[in-house]
Structure formats: C-alpha cells, structure tokens
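Quick review question:
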C-alpha cells in the first residue's frame, strides 16, 4: 500500500460545486481512472479519501489537497496521468507525493491557508485599501461575528491573520489561520474590513482564490507553516518575506 497526498487546482464552472459534490466528483474520477484505491470495510465500503480544507462555493484554488491510499500503483506519475485523464476541464492534479504510512491525514494537518481577494469591476471598495487595512490591523482586537453550528459568536480575528499585503492591482494577499481549531474564512475577513471602513460591501463584490494550504511544524528557529507539498509552493507565496526559508514561513 502507498499513502499519497495530491495537490489540485479548481477553476471554471466546477468552482460552483459544493464540497460534498466535489468529493463525489473525485470518487467517480478515481473509478473511471481505475485507480486501485483502498476501500473501507463493512457492509457499505467507500473510498478512503481525506480532503484538507473545504472551499467556499464559487471560489477557485491552485492549492488544495487530498490524501488517499492505493493498494498498488506503478508510480505517482502514472496516478497523476490517469486521474487527469479522467477529470473534466477545470480540475487538475498538479502534484503528488508519497507519505509515511503513519502520517496524519490532510484534514487534521491543516494550519493555514493563503488567499488572493479581488473585487469585481464596479464593486470595488471606495476607501483606500492599503491605509484602511493597515488601520484595521493596528487595532488591539478585531471583533467579528462568526456563525457556528450552535448559532453566532463574536471572536477576535486579529491573531488569525498571519500575514497581509495589498498588491499593486489593489488585490488583498493574506495568510490566514485554518483548520479545525481556529479557522478564519476569507469572506469573514473581507466583511469585517468593510464594516471597519463603514462601507456596505456590494453583493458578490469579492472574488476569492486560494493560493496554497499549509501545515504547521517546529524547528530550532521556532514555529512555522509550510505548504502541504513543500516543493510545490506558489511563486507569489510571500517570497519576499525575510522569514521565508526553504518553503517555511515562520509565524
């Protein structure tokens, strides 16, 4: 058996599928590609897949991940070719790596996610994005209302914003906490920014693109986050940051 981590991108109409539909789509593609994937035991066996982080409907990504175990394979390249041959346009496996047998699955590993937030033409913010975001981050706390299974609660999202910058074309580039314990959605960040600026955000104004998904680690330099397949890091991923070393971002 081989445990694999797969990186994929998602663009085009498929971005409007919800997470459960994406899972079903991938399961069907695996069957079409005749991948010898491991199934669960019992009366209703299912493919053993672990997706790192659900993506909001309508968002695109270049850096999402899933783990799966195959019973046999020629090599990782053959798995990638077979899957991409079975996928529809817009969904592409871009990298695969083998994992140690006892490694933690993708969903449990997630620590952060990196996004580009842009605005549709005619729906851009009227305020100075660079100055407003700087003032926004200068607050001692940044309260935001987060929806949970048990209702709504107010949380401080400032510790969940690891890095930010405003790109020359007025897009927001951010690195946010993610995972099961402390997850900040890019949409909640954007809504909070507009609320801070005293401006109502137009409907469907923001466009969200996930650049990369990260896991956490610790070494002699301190705590860091790193792409789930380190060698596949995006060229835009805060590469000018002085704390970025060998694909690690120290936080």
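Suggested answer, residue by residue:
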């Amino acid at each position: 058996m081989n445990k694999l981590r797969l990186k994929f991108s998602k663009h085009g109409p498929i971005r409007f599928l919800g997470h459960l539909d994406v899972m079903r789509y991938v399961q069907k593609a695996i069957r079409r590609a005749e991948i010898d994937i491991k199934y669960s035991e019992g009366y209703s066996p299912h493919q053993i897949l672990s997706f790192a982080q659900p993506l909001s409907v309508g968002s695109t990504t270049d850096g999402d991940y899933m783990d799966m175990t195959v019973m046999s394979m020629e090599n990782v390249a053959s798995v990638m070719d077979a899957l991409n041959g079975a996928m529809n346009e817009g969904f592409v496996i871009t990298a695969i790596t083998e994992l140690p047998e006892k490694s933690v699955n993708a969903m449990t590993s997630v620590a952060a996610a990196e996004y580009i937030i842009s605005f549709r033409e005619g729906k851009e913010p009227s305020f100075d994005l660079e100055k407003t975001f700087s003032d926004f981050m200068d607050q001692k706390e940044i309260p935001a209302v987060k929806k949970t299974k048990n209702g709504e609660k107010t949380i401080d999202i400032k510790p969940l914003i690891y890095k930010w910058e405003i790109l020359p074309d007025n897009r927001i580039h951010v690195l946010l906490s993610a995972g099961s314990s402390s997850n900040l959605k890019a949409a909640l960040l954007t809504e909070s920014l507009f609320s801070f600026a005293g401006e109502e955000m137009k409907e469907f104004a923001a466009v969200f693109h996930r650049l990369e998904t990260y896991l956490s680690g610790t070494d002699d330099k301190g705590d860091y986050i790193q792409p789930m397949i380190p060698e596949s890091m995006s060229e835009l991923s805060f590469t000018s940051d002085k704390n970025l070393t060998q694909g690690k971002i120290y936080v």
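Why it works: Helices lie at 19-32, 76-86, 106-109, 129-137, 186-197. The chain has five helices and 13 strands.
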